[in-house]
Amino acid sequence: xxxxxxxxxxxxxxxxxxxxxxxxxxxxxxxxxxxxxxxxxxxxxxxxxxxxxxxxxxxxxxxxxxxxxxxxxxxxxxxxxxxxxxxxxxxxxxxxxxxxxxxxxxxxxxxxxxxxxxxxxxxxxxxxxxxxxxxxxxxxxxxxxxxxxxxxxxxxxxxxxxxxxxxxxxxxxxxxxxxxxxxxxxxxxxxxxxxxxxxxxxxxxxxxxxxxxxxxxxxxxxxxxxxxxxxxxxxx
Length: 236
What we know:
5-stranded parallel beta sheet, alpha/beta, 236 residues
């Protein structure tokens, strides 16, 4: 089966070079030239049973910060992230890796080097992908939904099955553990491994919003309730 790769790059010539290079390999390249739909494409690929495994992200994108996108992909998805940049200082490399990138490649891009690094990142993550695919079905049942604690599969009341990212899974586990009472955004942020939380950080809100969609929450009946001034609560 082809290894699905998302290329987030606005340089049309470079995109064509990369697509041409990987045309006869096991890598299948999808393209987002702005980064605006990257998270949506990753989520859609899972629904279509052709999950994106790697994302190659240019640092400089129109209307989008590539390093911020790398951080979002690292926090909200399970894909391996490779950053492309024309900046080659040690500080820039450290900044890229600090945002959650699995690798950092300087431009101009050597296509053979890119391929070898993609293979290396995928090899490091392959066992994780395989483990997720092979997990036995053992679920935590809560209210009207079921959650697989190992492979992070969620089944909503309508029977729709979706795979949670690691961060989404941690948020839901935190809410289940504190069901019926409000849990602060800071506490949830700590549980997903964010030690630098601030009141302006919207990561938890994004994750809760994605969970609500996967739970099938409706305006008339919400399983995850916003408690004004306190945080979020899983209704009992």
